[in-house]
Amino acid sequence: MVKNIIEVEGLSKSFNIASKDPGVKGTLKHFFKRQTKRVKVIKNINFQIKEGEIIGLLGANGAGKTTILKMLCGLIVPSEGSISVSGYIPYRRTEGFLKNITLIMGQKQQLIWDLPPIESFYLNASIYDIDKFEAKRRIKKLSDMLEIQDELYIPVRKLSLGERMKSELLAALIHKPKILFLDEPTLGLDINAQRNLRNFLKSYNSENNSTICLTSHYMKDITSLCKRVICVHNGSISYDGKLEKLLKNLSPVKDVLIVCSSEKDANKLEKSGFKVKSKVKNEITLKIENRNVSSSLRSILNNYEIEDLFINEPPIDEIIEKILVKKKYTF
Amino acid sequence: MNKNKYLAVYAKFLHTSLASELEYKTNIIIDAITAMLSLVGSIFLLSIFFQNTGNIGGWNFEQALIIQGIYTVLNGVTNTWFNPNLREIVRHVREGTLDFVLLKPVDSQFFISLKKISPSGFLEILLGVCLMFYCIKINQIQLSFNFLILCLITITCSICILYSLWFFISTTTIWFVKTWNATEVLRSFLYIGRFPISSFSFSLRLFFSIIIPIAFITTIPSEVLLGFSQLWKIILEICITLIFLITSRRFWLFALKYYSSASS
């Protein structure tokens, strides 16, 4: 049985947040007498993550995903509850714990701006106590996987965003961490660079059995990497389970495209009581509930002249967008 | 703490920051010229003060020059290490990149205080040392091993006090986010250290001895160099140094508990 590598129990976090009224009066008031209120941003959450799992944290902006991620890697001390990551209490930030994890933030960088990335890699290697030969071997292997062999010797400021992000990944993985925390790692990258990064993470996960905890607003990141997702809404977990099941729950209908042999048949089908999504000449798309698909198709095939038929799942991106865009969503 | 590991990491810090700085040769040359002109200007200013009087606060021009030498060394240390590193704390906190520092398996204070180096400050240190040796010569001071050790101890203490004060102020960034001005005020106070503490009024002497110990930073090492320092003052400077170092360290560790990181 695969053991839990991350265990979170009754976790809450509150912050003092300053509020300011608009206008000059509000600004002066804010300057002389700052008003703060205590806001509970994470509310009593519980979850476990198994070794080798890739999980996606989903939620709208401000839902609390990054706060959870930062508590998991020990940057923020929880207000209540307990966290265990690889047997360590994260916020103590012991050497053993820090050597086990890494944090990659899509919008922040740790590479030395004026120097080629290789200099940052060797600096990190000495920080993580990795000898020069081993560091060289790991840099070679990771740069081959990431396909950035030529970029290792070009100053960071001259690299493209995609090349920089790959270099950031290499810098963050040189110590072979067991747990990867990724906060929007593909932010701002073009489609090609996003795909390369995802492929790399997939192969890194399968090669090293590393655990990956990821937040992203790009649906493809979630759908191609994560089997399991945790949806966060207003600091609470609204769903924790398989992505597949979530999609089923959120999308109880299928799109069925029927190509009728004539436009007349299509018109007849349009008026037959099915829910019509669109109709162009002899092609008609119906929305049919999952549980009624087979009986509905049987009846259509028996009663109409059909040339062709396609069953489509609604685009996954649209479904996940519902979670990200909708402020309140209950499952 | 693994001493060898820290030495290896520091060697890497030196290498990477020197390599970064050397990317901009003109900037280094301008900084070097500024350092030389600043020293010439300071000596000129000091000479104006002494133009109509033989001594200020019991110090003659040749003796006061030694304070200028120590001030130049300290300013060089400030420009080499404190300025590039401790000013960065504000940026790290504002932009949330302190996260990367805190997640490294090395002491965060070590990392944040020594990661960068500005080579242009080396010239100031060199100029300050030259000025100190010149003063030793014109003041006809006899050099001995014990004398040199005492000088080294008091100057090291001065550097540590200055570092602790600067680090303490920078740490408040964790609550107040922007504290550039506070470190600038500290630098302005340091300018006062170019003059003997005895040349100030009683209340100012008290302020610069107890509240912001500028007096300890330059005057005591100068007195040691001139051979008229009292032992109790040296011991007091060592004690104050330890108090400042320990307090700033504890304050940093305490502040980190309140670090909330920046939003993504």
Largest sheet of chain A: 6 strands, mixed
Identify low-pLDDT runs of chain A. Answer: 327-331
* Biggest sheet details of chain B: 2 strands, antiparallel
Radius of gyration of chain A: 25 Å
Which structural class do the helices and strands of chain A define?
A: alpha/beta
Order of strands, widest sheet of chain B: 1-2
Beta-strand proportion of chain A: 25-35%
Strand arrangement, major sheet of chain A: 5-6-7-3-8-9
Q: Let me know the number of strands of chain B.
A: 2
Helical content of chain B stands at: over 70%
**Average of pLDDT of chain A:** 86
Class of secondary structure makeup of chain B: mainly alpha
The outline of chain A comes out as globular
Oligomeric composition of the shown chains: heterodimer
Termini Cα gap of chain B: 33 Å
Mean pLDDT of chain B, to the nearest integer, reads: 84
Q: Quick one: how many beta strands of chain A?
A: 13
Strand fraction band of chain B?
under 5%
Order of helices and strands of chain B: HHEEHHHHHHHHHH
Key features of this structure:
heterodimer, A: 331 residues, 6-stranded mixed sheet, 38% helix, disordered C terminus, B: 264 residues, mainly alpha, globular
Task: Explain this structure.
The complex is a heterodimer of chains A (331) and B (264). With 331 residues, chain A is of the alpha/beta class. Helices cover 38% and strands 30% of the residues of chain A. Chain A has helices spanning 23-32, 65-72, 95-100, 117-127, 132-146, 161-173, 191-208, 219-225, 243-250, 263-270, 293-303, 316-325, and strands at residues 4-19, 35-50, 54-58, 80-85, 101-105, 179-183, 211-215, 228-233, 236-242, 253-260, 275-280, 283-289, 306-312. In chain A, strands 5-6-7-3-8-9 form a six-stranded mixed sheet, with helices on both faces. In chain A, strand 8 (228-233) and strand 9 (236-242) form a beta hairpin. In chain A, helix 4 packs across helix 5. Chain A is globular. The model of chain A is unreliable at 327-331 (pLDDT under 50). Chain B is mainly alpha-helical and 264 residues long. Chain B has twelve helices and two strands, in the order ααββαααααααααα. In chain B, 77% of the residues lie in helices and 2% in strands. The two termini of chain B are 33 Å apart. Chain B has a two-stranded antiparallel ribbon. The mean pLDDT of chain B is 84. The A-B interface holds A 15, 66, 70, 73-77, 93, 95, 98-99, 101-103, 105, 107-110, 112-115, 119-120, 122-123, 126-129, 155, 183-184, 215 and B 2, 5, 8-9, 11-13, 15-16, 19-20, 23-24, 95-97, 99-100, 102-106, 257, 259-261, 263-264.
